[in-house]
Write a structure and sequence with these properties.
The protein is mostly helical. About 75% of the residues lie in helices and about 0% in strands. Helix 3 packs across helix 15, helix 4 packs parallel to helix 15 and helix 9 packs antiparallel against helix 17.
Amino acid sequence: MLEYIFSKLEIFDDCLWGYLGFPAIIIIGIILSFQSRFVQIRKFPHIIKTFIGFLLYRNKDARGIHPLKAFFACVGGCVGLGNVVGICTAVQIGGPGALFWIWITAILGMIIKYSEVYLGCKYREKDNRGGYNGGPMIYLQRVFKTKTIPYFVCLLLCVYGVEVYQFRIISNSLTENLGVSEYIVVAALFSFIFISCLGGIKRVGTISSLLIPVFVVIYVGMGLFILTQNYHLLPSIFELVLTSAFTSQSATGGFVGSTILLTISQGIRRGCYTGDIGIGYASVIHSETSSQSAKNQASLVIFDIFLDTIIVCSTSILIILVTDIWKQPIDPGFMVQTALSSYFPYMEFFMPFFVFLVGTSTINAYFCVGLKCAEFLMPKIGRKVYYVYALTSLFVFSMMDATSAQIFMSSVGGTLLIINLYGIFTLRHEINYNIGEEEQELSTIVA
């Protein structure tokens, strides 16, 4: 029965992304880019300046959390196993050309994610805990005449908040490499998530601000070492990426790689997943910021996607391309590990530890958003109900493979994307893209 359900869900997922998701990302991304005069490229140096300015931000009495705590909590949900494992699926199914469409998704996704976070910060509401509630469940109320659809989106964010796919990757990595019982993994992982999320987004941001920089430096450093060892292959690799972006060439071959549509779809859907583009998740987190400038806070997600997709995802894909691992019939969860093993020893011990750290960082961030959305829907019992749902979901998906979990997350994320993109497009004239024109807040940050 479950196999039948997931086979139908896979068809739904393919249709959702193939015929709605990727055209919507491309069309709306282009429209918003022209409306903003490609602010994601034009103002990138100023965005870096904004990030540095927030390092000196001091305002202990403000409602909400430090802007960079929100930033790192959001990045913690992006930079993780999706960049190391999930992104490899795009190449395995769609071929090397998927990387080109991941780059396109990143550029267009920057302005979409900026718009999403800007609306979340602009229309956020104060809560009774000294923070804010913001996100699509609030700003979509300005789009639809009824609260039914915004509240349905909030419910989907609750479902999306239990990151069963990354949970399965962590579980598989630990059990396969170290022989740890899956039940012990489930108990340890849920306990860690429970303790982390008791402190809300602020604690999740603190944990991510410690883990993410270490992850990026180590992982990208290892990737650069492999790429420099194979620098003579890079011109042909980039040529392969560009040519196969408009042709059909996948590792699995046959019908799976028979259409260019699949290459584009795989690149865009995995790019959206790793960058959390248009899902609404980032809007919920960044709305907690103590910064009163929606533009400054929203501009941080442009740097977020640059770091997450352009740097980390490209590293993962280039590693498996230059080592030719992408052509081998290897589970996506072990493709990068296999490639790294050719150059670095003890990967069978290092990768499970590495996967656990970055995976839990992502799961924590998602789970925290799910909790906030559950409390928004049911203020009195939302948290308790959500814990029960989380335990049930983790138990059910512990009996399934990672592919089923990925299809489930992709389907929920795709549904959120379509609804949220419609809302962003409808409210596009209420978004201020004039980044850098108001320097008042940043000039007083260090005061």
